[in-house]
Write a structure and sequence with these properties.
The protein is built from 18 helices and 34 strands. By secondary structure, it is α+β, with helices and mostly antiparallel strands. The strands form nine sheets. Strands 26, 27, 29, 30, 31, 32 and 34 form a seven-stranded antiparallel sheet that branches. A hairpin with a 5-residue loop joins strand 11 and strand 12. The longest helix has 22 residues. The protein is globular and about 95 Å long. The two termini are about 40 Å apart.
Amino acid sequence: MSLAAGLLSVAPCTPAAEPENAFPPMPPIQALTPEDSAKKFQLPPGYHLELVVGDPIIKDPVVAAFDGDGAMFVAEMRSYMRDADGTDQLAPIGRVSLHSSTKGDANFDRHTVFIDHLVLPRMILPLGKGQLVVGESQTLDLFLYTDTDGDGVADKKELWFAGGPHGGIVEHQSSGLVWCADNWIYTTVNAWRLRWTPHGVIQESTAGNEGQWGLSQDDFGKPWPMNARGERGPVNFQVPMMYGPFRIKGEMADGFDEVWPLPGLADVQGGAGRYRSADKTLNHFTATAGADIYRGDRLPAELRGDLFFGEPVGRLVRRAKIEVNEGVTTLRNPYQPTKSEFIRSSDPCFRPVNMITAPDGTLYIVDMYRGVIQENVAVPRGSYLRKVVEQYSLDKIVGYGRIWRLVHDGITPGPQPKMFGQASAELVAALAHPNGWWRDTAQKLLILRQDKSVTPALVEMARNHQDIFARFHAFWTLEGLDALTPAVVRTMLANEHADLRGAAIRAGESLSRKGDTSLQGDLPAMAADRDPTVAMQALLTAKSLGWPDAASLIDKTIASAKALGVKEIGGQLLHPQVQETTGLSFTPAQKKIMAAGAATYNTLCVSCHGPDGKGAPMIGAAPGAKLAPALAASKLVTGRAEGPIYVMLHGLTGDIDGKNYGGQMISMAGFDSQWIASALSFVRNSFGNAAGFVTAEDVTRYRAATRERTQPWTMPVLRASLPKTLSRSEWKTSASHNSATTALAIDGNVETRFTTGTPQVPGMWIQVELPTETTISAVTLDTAGSPEDYPRAYEIACSIDGRSWDKPIATGRGDGPRTEIAIESRTAKFVRITQTGSDPRAPWSIHELQIYAPAITTQDRK
């Protein structure tokens, strides 16, 4: 139930200019019928894809989900990229369609529009009969739609969860809405999870998960988020993602990121660096999408527990083998030795964006089937990708979509479920079904019913059933019914199966949070468990609960551990990577801004820029190659606020100071001004940076100034559009206090400073005499070396002769070590900055004073 990933391949930046004849017109790519497209698939022997439902019944499908009777809901993004510019992409023409079988054989012959007029629907979660929770784009609000009369069309809409607005491109918004085995509902992007209760939906904060497009869970309830942004595919799968991002070197086999497509159109963002020159096929992940851990029972056993996900830019489906050794989970492509994939298609319009284990025991694949899969910010006019799109007329192939069923010779799909009409005792029995979908759905429906009469049967199943999965789901169903007791948990803690012992530790957290801390004393024994995954879970739980002895327990466990996983996860728990703020002191309001910015950074930015702000490695590239430039000590980041604001609003492409990076910075203009301001304030004051805070008003002002701009910046154009620093070599300076030190404010040495030497009082001033009359547009006062010495308030005045002064051209208040002052362009020879505030605790200091001339050109701001 995760949104397709990779709708936008935000991977490589624009390469060097192509030759004039590099994009000769080619015969337009044509959409194929489902029957002809099916002939283009390449699968291992015995496997086939058969059409479940296709166009024109559905168009632009991105996610499918099944209700308790096996009816299939399909979210359709019908407004997505109707042309290469993404015209009217937010038009409310999306829908959720409903497909059912009147014969009860999973061959869908009844089709209705369950909900119409939606804005890019992206998340769907079936609940009870006729109920569906839906998340649209541009909002975190979730609504419950109900079909009250059974006609297959929702006629009731209720707010289910109030999440508020959320901007950004399609790629940067959440996916998932997966009801996992622990009875929490997870999404990607968001640092929180949701839970249905009889009294309403509750929200709980979690660590950021770095997920992007796609979310699944395995047989023991561990969520598996996908991340296309960092070109990684699955991400943070070592431990359940609510505990935070944990990665271990070597968790992906060598070459895992390489892909082996069939068609060679080279329609990849970034050009030559992302395709093989010999056949023009995509060379590694750029748009990984819509994961599913296959947990069905109507395909060969060799697939069970494997991870499947799409790479829609490569027109393929990756199958990954999951292996656990010493507590470390690793992934490998079993077809890597033969340079192949589990599913490949030579049809250029095959775009697998989602997978799901179906009630019939097979694997369903959602195919968005279209010419262009990337969003408009990745296909700007004049870009490499735009030229390829136009070369093959890919932008003309819209309004299609298919859902395929993976089958195998000799194995027929299973029966259709009828769970809504079953008694609770029958649902308990379904917890032992060999198909994971049945177990998940039976557990969910039992919890929605809140029928505690089945508690004794669940306790018996959890303790004694011969099937480990039945015991697992019975245990978590008890937790969801609020019928779990410490006695049952301790029974599971002593179980012979490590996965059940680990589940018992996790479930014990819910008891602790309700006030029953009796199980916390069991953590030391569980941390010493013979199975490393159980020991790791004990450490995660101790840290998550804020257990007073957590640090000593983790330290002691690491010291005695032999398993690599325990050492690695324990070490990261003890020493998490901290985004340093250089000892800066923040006001309560600034701390709130920093927290909001950190949440954004750790959700959207960390994949490319790295947790330390130094740029994430580019997987599969030469040593030292980065996906994105460093933000730490970046002159662009810490310079005038206009620069990073412009980049956030319009993106940045091309070489940066002679270096070509793997990831293109795309526009974030879809987010509101406060969101952008918080993100930039965090980056400008983390990773050793110490720059001024950015306000929502700053962003709004520069958004208006560049509202006509339609293309991402290049560094030469960006620099030409920023205020220009004036040479300080011939400046003359003076001051009201301690005038002998004023030259230290313009000496280029951040370690030296001008200081009044006495506490701040109104009327203190510093003055600059320029060598000639000059047009000025901005002033910056940098006090990073003395972060508390910023001006509490200020005004700036100008003069031609140093005797007659204009009225102040700028007034304001300082709020941190860098005070940036934008002024309306003014010609002056003398500039005086007056400190107008008071603070008995701090002098007024300036480590670096800079005055700026207007940008060389404003034409290219558009």
